[in-house]
Specification:
With about 150 residues, this protein is of the alpha+beta class. It is built from five helices and six strands. The protein is globular. The chain starts with a helix and ends with a helix.
Length: about 150
C-alpha cells in the first residue's frame, strides 16, 4: 500500500493505465472525497465516499481509452499530507475513435496511504470533447440557462 500522497497518486496513474478502476477507487479512504470545482452540466462537483468514487470511475473506460501519461510534475507543499500534481493524459475517445490530450492539475491529500481528498481542476469543455460528449454537455448547459 502506498505510504505518501505521491506514492498513492503514482499508483493511481498505474491503475488507470491498466484500466482497473476498482483498484483506483480502493486508493480512497472509505469517507474520502473527489471534488471537481470546474464541473458543469451533468458532471458531479463532489463525490463523497469510496463507493460513489467507484461508480464514477467505472464509467470512464466506456468513454476514454487512456493510453499514456507522458508528463507528471509533483509539487510538494508545506503540508506533508498534500501534494499538487500537474499531469497530461493522452489516448483515444471511444465514441469517436479520435485521439485526445488532456492536461490536469490536482491537489491530493492522503493519510495512512489512502486518498482523503482529491481536487481535480480539469477543463469541462476539453474533457467533454475528449470523451465524445461535447453535444450532451452543451445541451445540459442550454437547459440550465433556460431555467
Amino acid at each position: 500500500m502506498p505510504s505518501t500522497p505521491e506514492e498513492a497518486f503514482r499508483r493511481l496513474l498505474e491503475l488507470m493505465l491498466a484500466k482497473d478502476t476498482d483498484a483506483v477507487a480502493a486508493l480512497w479512504a472509505e469517507d474520502g472525497t473527489a471534488e471537481f470545482p470546474f464541473a458543469v452540466g451533468n458532471s458531479p462537483r463532489l463525490l463523497t465516499g469510496r463507493e460513489q468514487i467507484r461508480v464514477y470511475l467505472g464509467r470512464l473506460p466506456e468513454l476514454m481509452d487512456v493510453q499514456e501519461i507522458p508528463a507528471v510534475t509533483v509539487h510538494h507543499t508545506e503540508r506533508p499530507d498534500t501534494i499538487v500534481v500537474e499531469f497530461t493524459g493522452t489516448g483515444r475517445t471511444l465514441r469517436t475513435g479520435e485521439p485526445y490530450r488532456l492536461d490536469y492539475i490536482a491537489v491530493i491529500t492522503a493519510q495512512d496511504g489512502l486518498i482523503t481528498r482529491y481536487r481535480d481542476y480539469w477543463s469541462p469543455l476539453a474533457t467533454a470533447s475528449a470523451a465524445g460528449t461535447l453535444p450532451e454537455l452543451l445541451d445540459s448547459l442550454r437547459s440550465e440557462a433556460a431555467r
